[in-house]
Please model this.
Amino acid sequence: MNAELITMGQNARIAAKSLALAPETQKNAALLAMAKAIRAHAQTIQSANDQDMASAKSKDLKSSFIDRLALNAARIEAMAKGLEDIAALPDPVGRLLEKWQRPNGMEISRIAVPIGVIGIIYESRPNVTADAGGLCLKSGNAAILRGGSDGFASSQAIITCLQQGLTEAGLDPHAIQMVQTTDREAVGDMLTGLGGTIDLIIPRGGKSLVARVQENARVPVFSHLEGICHVYVDRDADPEMAKSIVLNAKMRRTGVCGSAETILIDSTNLNSLKPIISTLIDAGCEVRGDAAAQNTDPRVKPVTEEDWSTEYLDAIVSLRVVDGVDAAIVHIANYGSQHTDSIVTANQKTAEKFLTEVDSAIVLHNASTQFADGGEFGFGAEIGIATGKMHARGPVGVNQLTTFKYQIRGTGQTRP
Amino acid sequence: MNAELITMGQNARIAAKSLALAPETQKNAALLAMAKAIRAHAQTIQSANDQDMASAKSKDLKSSFIDRLALNAARIEAMAKGLEDIAALPDPVGRLLEKWQRPNGMEISRIAVPIGVIGIIYESRPNVTADAGGLCLKSGNAAILRGGSDGFASSQAIITCLQQGLTEAGLDPHAIQMVQTTDREAVGDMLTGLGGTIDLIIPRGGKSLVARVQENARVPVFSHLEGICHVYVDRDADPEMAKSIVLNAKMRRTGVCGSAETILIDSTNLNSLKPIISTLIDAGCEVRGDAAAQNTDPRVKPVTEEDWSTEYLDAIVSLRVVDGVDAAIVHIANYGSQHTDSIVTANQKTAEKFLTEVDSAIVLHNASTQFADGGEFGFGAEIGIATGKMHARGPVGVNQLTTFKYQIRGTGQTRP
Model:
């Protein structure tokens, strides 16, 4: 294992210890100082990004990749503002989660505490450096960041500002560190936990990055591989509401994990089929449907078995007519990714059945799947969405980056 | 991978699905029917155990091992009673954990749901079969049990009763299954998750079993490797309370994970040293102490560096004089196992410092470490204690065997 990385892990572990006990005011002072430093050094960050961009453009990279790498004045300001927003959140550490008294008089409290050291592995998206660093700091965790090599100079310029903020507030600058090597083995070392110094890995990026992390990590991971989200339009759905939710769930933003990829429509509600298909196609969405859908509108393309398990992240949707809510639940169990699924219905009983039986992190009734987002939950900011069932499920905000301990206050109790 | 095990995993996954939706009354009916079946077949269970015992006695096994393997009428009745106690607990599934409303009117609820399929790997202690099976069932999880080969016949007789109870209550008998092979590869297969069918592993047994599981598991594990628990007697401790808590923490039962292994005493509280040492030695405990302790009482044996990180699980204790609460916290951070640690003091400020800064699953003020137990927390029954920081920490009862989902109820909301 890379000796520099081991030192980084050990320094992170020491920083985590002091950070866990840092008062709220000090953490917030650091976040505000970080924001200020980003604004003060905006030109340096922009120059570093220009350098990354020039190098990236000389390679044959996708335009979406280049777009995520690019910084400008607005994006740099958004990073600074994001850190200020995190400062404004309530402190997740020290929250009293539960409290009860035992018959012998002992008082048991369950208190939120930081997890420890969090490794963030991401692609060449410089703003993740500031977001992830800020969220980890607020939740009292040390962060080890490993961004994509194409954004190295940009991330380096940003991390300098973050560490300046930490130092100004009197916090250990090792609380947020960036891996200084861009070779791929560094990721492998992080996935093994850097000799017991990393407690948790959060990958941020495309499916291949997440798949690599999930397959090889020997420490816990918060992640989702993909968001194959469904909207089921029930027989008792209000037609206008169905149209509006389907359109929003698919088309508001097609590249986010909470966008719908499959629309399921009850077979006894074929009246809804035509307007829903028209609405989607008129909005520029390609609809791939089964025979019923194709018979309804000649613009519908044939769907294949593979479509049901495809996350398009694009203006394409698959559409299937199903026999009622039970068939919809079975379809979602077979093809879904336990991320986010929605039912549109005016029937309360059918809605409750769907909300209970669909085994996804987020299930909605009469609302768009695009609400699958920490900000929309009121979490303030999120570091990602998890579809695993352990610890955090759904949006991961600062509260979800904490664990807990039991504090017991007694008056001399011994156990009989 | 063993084909029989793969089938077992697939059957467990199917059972978990129906079990997750089983009403409380049905799960409780099954638990009561299981208890009844154990009583009805007590003779069969006893005969199977006699067979296991005869075979074990022909080997050269430790007497503590033989004792854990042995069943008798009282122990069989205790298993039945344990299942009835689990039936009497509130249903952990469907609990409303949090609920809030968003400005757009959407109502977000966080609801407890089962984890899925839990693998339990344990030694030749037949009662774990009933306990673990019952706790998993109550929490809506399917269980795959793998007990030690020396208790195979006993566990098999018990599992037959459990499955009879499941069937009588109309539940899938695959909800609790037992691995039918005693070869060690079966454990390895379980640790990889049986082809994605096991969500969580809980080991129950000695340190070598837990270490093997922790090292090799590719799925989440709830466990503690050891309980190196401390009692720190502060300068402001009430002398009588200190004596009584130290004695109880060490000697009530020496073989449990919450028993104290090291006593730390403030150097400005040397008056307490003599009575504490006398109390321990008079109760039959060997005290291994530093120079100050040896000077206080000639019966104190010298302590070595290794003692500080030794879990004796016996009537032996190490004792160190430290310079105040800060030194105690440092000692615990260096040598503890993040399990359970206690401070005895009348000083509220010192107590709060200890409760905040000691990074263990359970921290106590003026109470014995032997309260580290799900029953003592009011959890009803526990499947073990976890010292990891993810998901469950401290005693693992039925609530800790659940995860959650978000249910969102809207009235047609779309995201702007």
